[in-house]
Amino acid sequence: MTSINHSQLRAFHAVATEGSFTKAANMLSVTQPTLSGQVKALEDQFGVRLFDRRKRKIELTDIGRNLFDITFRLFSLELEAEQVLTSARGLKRGHLRIGADAPYHSIPFLAAFHRRYPSLRLSMSIGNSEKLVADLLDQRCEVAIAANVPADPRIFSLPFRQDYLVAFVDRAHPWANKRQIDLTDLAGKRLVLREATSTTRRTFEAAIDAAGITIGEVLEIGSREAIREAVAAGLGIGIVANSEFGDDVRLKALEFAGPLMQSMEYVACLNDRRTTPLVKAFLDIVRESIADGKGSR
């Protein structure tokens, strides 16, 4: 009976998860030629093709997708076993990967977690809610902190903060002396907005569509930091969640009169992973924060 090389299987799983040999090599801390050689050796051993290699991307073949379903379960159980053994030592070792839609909500949780478990390794990636949910389902992170997490039986979500949208302008803007504007004031105005898949953009566009408002040109930028710089440079009016506005002296926040455009922030994990030691420990931190009144508005 032909045995499967565990390192080759892990190499395949990393490439299938990351969708890139380069990213997978970085994740496993090996060189790309080494990783490619491991995947090729696995393919050659069983006489199969696991990936269709194209110029700029790779795609799983049918047998690759079937194998990925198996390795997904296999390495999930391996990680769960490691966390069970880690918990026997009082959570003194382990690596918790967190995805967040913004640092403002997530850093206080990470800081509290680090204070309680200083020997554990933490890493955080930033992305919009859609990407974070995909990362969670594909196990690129164990915990996601994001707005408006969709209902999905595979996902457990814990609401911790309700937020609302505000507009903001540069200090030289004619509205800089205002405290509040009407949503209708944005008709025909040039706006600086996140990408179409972001929760902020979707919430805002739902509100203006419901109000029958036609805005002007949209400058679309894929990061909050770049949006702040664009608005500060006078390139348009920005829209952001109130808790993420910060204290940039170049900018002025403007609340909207009337009903608030609201979103809810959640801490989410895979439903079948919520009781694993590392994830449970993080959820406990979040619950304690909510109970102390630090996690919700």
TrEMBL record:
InterPro entries, per this entry? Answer: LysR_HTH_N, LysR_subst-bd, WH-like_DNA-bd_sf, WH_DNA-bd_sf
* Limits of the HTH lysR-type domain: 4-61
Supply the PROSITE patterns for this chain: HTH_LYSR
Q: Which UniProt keywords apply?
A: DNA-binding, Transcription, Transcription regulation
The secretion signal range is none
SUPFAM superfamilies, from UniProt?
A: Periplasmic binding protein-like II, Winged helix' DNA-binding domain
Q: Which family does it belong to?
A: Belongs to the LysR transcriptional regulatory family.
Name of the protein in question: LysR substrate-binding domain-containing protein
